[in-house]
UniProtKB/TrEMBL annotation:
Protein name as annotated: Flavin prenyltransferase PAD1, mitochondrial
Primary role: Flavin prenyltransferase that catalyzes the synthesis of the prenylated FMN cofactor (prenyl-FMN) for the ferulic acid decarboxylase FDC1. The prenyltransferase is metal-independent and links a dimethylallyl moiety from dimethylallyl monophosphate (DMAP) to the flavin N5 and C6 atoms of FMN.
Gene3D superfamilies attached to this UniProt entry: Flavin prenyltransferase-like
EC number of the protein: 2.5.1.129
Chain residues that bind dimethylallyl phosphate: Y191, R207
Organism the protein comes from: Aspergillus niger
Length: 227
């Protein structure tokens, strides 16, 4: 089981019992027919070369724990940042995803609107990628998939990592927001009185996944002033 988790592979649950006939829908000839199994939720995770690689890694870990199917796309600079900022190797990060797509594979399933995805998160999102999404310049799989999310009116979250922000950055953020995306700067919440950087990361990741109606349960939510 542990090896299958590391490899990013999935195995069918062949031991699950079929529902009793009394719970199956009945067709016009009064013959019991089995309901199709519900599809797992499916989210595309893209990682660019902006600082904050651990945010993307933590998102993948949380989605795996929540049994959400993940499709990962990483840029070459994301791989470089992973090696520089973390103790992970890009191969370890790929193993956290159910499926991995090459950033240059413009024929990957996620490049089409007919591929049923529940949303996409770009974490971290560089200003280059933000600009490409804003302009609709789909020269790689990350910007193309983000373009698909916008045209299909699906959730697109951009975890923008830059400071300070120029007018160009702000204009790009405003325009993609008007197009339907959500800009999520990973701003630390000091009210949680974090004991470590990991606590701050967990809070940010939890709030990111709130936008997909997913609850990580990894951080303390605000409940008013504590006495």
């Amino acid at each position: 089981m542990f090896n299958s988790l590391l490899s990013g592979t999935t195995t069918p649950n062949s031991g699950r019992a079929s529902p009793p006939a009394s719970e199956m829908p009945i067709d016009n000839d009064h013959v019991a027919v089995a309901r199709p199994a519900p599809r797992r939720r499916r989210i595309v995770v893209a990682m660019t070369g902006a600082t904050g690689a651990m945010l993307g890694i933590k998102v993948l870990i949380a989605l795996r724990r929540l049994n959400v199917e993940t499709h990962l796309v990483m840029s070459k600079w994301a791989e470089a940042t992973i090696k520089y900022e973390t103790d992970y190797h890009p191969s370890n990060v790929r193993a956290l995803a159910d499926y991995v797509h090459n950033i240059n594979d413009m024929a990957a399933p996620v490049s089409s609107g007919s591929f049923r995805a529940d949303g996409m998160i770009v974490v971290p999102c560089s200003m280059k990628t933000l600009a490409a999404i804003h302009s609709g310049f789909c020269d790689d799989l990350i910007s193309r998939t983000a373009d698909v999310m916008l045209k299909e009116r699906r959730r697109l979250v951009l975890v923008a990592r830059e400071t300070p922000l120029s007018e160009i950055h702000l204009r790009n953020m405003l325009e993609v927001t008007r197009a339907g995306a959500v800009i999520f700067p990973p701003v630390p919440a000091f009210y949680i009185k974090a004991g470590s950087i990991e606590d701050l990361i967990d809070q940010s990741v939890g709030r990111m996944l709130d936008l997909f109606d997913l609850d990580t349960g990894d951080f303390e939510r605000w409940n008013g002033w504590e006495k």
